[in-house]
């Protein structure tokens, strides 16, 4: 039996999931020799306006379709099923309890790291897992970020910064392109693209 102990957790709004997300998860998995990466679509992302957000059922299904060909990728409904805001500290506490012996790594892009000090209970969160931050075109960590007192000394020992091939892709750009009738081919998996057209996502209000 192979002993595998590192688990990656990739949270996101995934509206829709795209190849930037998938590459980040696979890059980190491979670099850290993780046994799997669990994708967690957030039902109610704390920092995002839910007004025009696609219903979680669609976003969740698109992630299922996107990861189906990668045996190392899984999806969890933990935030889909939880009421209220999808706070990462609650999600990681759940995984910590479920996998007491595993090293947990929360995977995120540089933009997420920059907002990290404003997340719910960041001082508790840093005690529950480590963090892998992947590079993202357009986002740099300013020197002043490292000068913040209080949280940073706690975060830094648990933080890994990883360069990955730059993917200047965002869900918002994909949504905008679809709205304008432009191609999104190769920006996301074909199955996800087909799902979007089949359900007329990003063009009108949605029925689940
Ligand atoms: N192109 C990318 N390169 C690296 N990391 C990314 C990329 N796109 C998203 N991420 C990271 O994936 C996580 C989930 O991102 P999210 O679902 O909000 O996608 P997004 O493309 O940033 O969406 P939106 O454009 O709607 O804000 C975040 O931690 C984010 O930093
Ligand atoms: O817990 C928080 O306070 C918190 C605040 C902002 C973002 N997050 C998480 O960070 C991940 C990326 O967020 P987003 O908004 O870029 O999709 C996702 O899993 C969010 O739930 C978490």
Q: Can you walk me through this structure?
A:
This is Probable nicotinate-nucleotide adenylyltransferase. Pathway: Cofactor biosynthesis; NAD(+) biosynthesis; deamido-NAD(+) from nicotinate D-ribonucleotide: step 1/1. Catalyzes the reversible adenylation of nicotinate mononucleotide (NaMN) to nicotinic acid adenine dinucleotide (NaAD). Keywords: ATP-binding, NAD, Nucleotide-binding, Nucleotidyltransferase, Pyridine nucleotide biosynthesis, Transferase. GO terms for molecular function: ATP binding; nicotinate-nucleotide adenylyltransferase activity. This protein is α/β, with parallel strands linked by helices and 208 residues long. It has one domain: Rossmann fold (3-Layer(aba) Sandwich). Helices cover 37% and strands 15% of the residues. The chain is built from nine helices and six strands. The protein has helices at residues 19-31, 56-67, 78-81, 88-98, 110-115, 122-128, 151-155, 171-179, 190-198, and strands at 6-12, 36-41, 73-75, 103-109, 130-134, 159-162. Strands 3-2-1-4-5-6 form a six-stranded parallel beta sheet, sandwiched between helices. Helix 2 runs antiparallel to helix 9 (190-198) and helix 4 packs parallel to helix 6 (122-128). The longest helix has 13 residues, at 19-31. The protein is globular, with a radius of gyration of 17 Å. The mean pLDDT is 94. The chain binds adenosine-5'-triphosphate and nicotinate mononucleotide (NCN).
């Amino acid at each position: 039996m192979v002993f595998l102990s590192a688990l990656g957790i990739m949270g996101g709004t995934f509206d829709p999931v795209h190849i930037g997300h998938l590459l980040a998860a696979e890059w980190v998995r491979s670099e850290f020799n993780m046994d799997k990466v669990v994708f967690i679509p957030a039902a109610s992302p704390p920092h995002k306006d839910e007004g025009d957000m696609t219903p979680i059922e669609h976003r969740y299904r698109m992630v299922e379709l996107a990861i189906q060909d990668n045996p190392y990728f899984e999806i969890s409904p933990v935030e889909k099923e939880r009421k209220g805001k999808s706070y990462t500290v609650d999600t990681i506490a759940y995984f910590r309890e479920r996998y007491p012996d595993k090293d947990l790594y929360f995977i995120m892009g540089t933009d997420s790291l920059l907002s990290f000090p404003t997340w719910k209970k960041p001082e508790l969160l840093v005690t529950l897992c480590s963090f892998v931050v992947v590079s993202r075109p357009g986002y740099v960590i300013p020197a002043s970020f490292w000068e913040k007192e209080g949280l940073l000394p706690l975060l830094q020992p648990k933080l890994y910064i990883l360069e990955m091939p730059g993917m200047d892709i965002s869900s918002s750009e994909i949504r905008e392109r679809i709205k304008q009738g432009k191609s999104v081919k190769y920006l996301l998996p074909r199955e996800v693209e087909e799902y979007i057209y089949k359900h007329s996502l990003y063009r009108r209000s949605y029925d689940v």
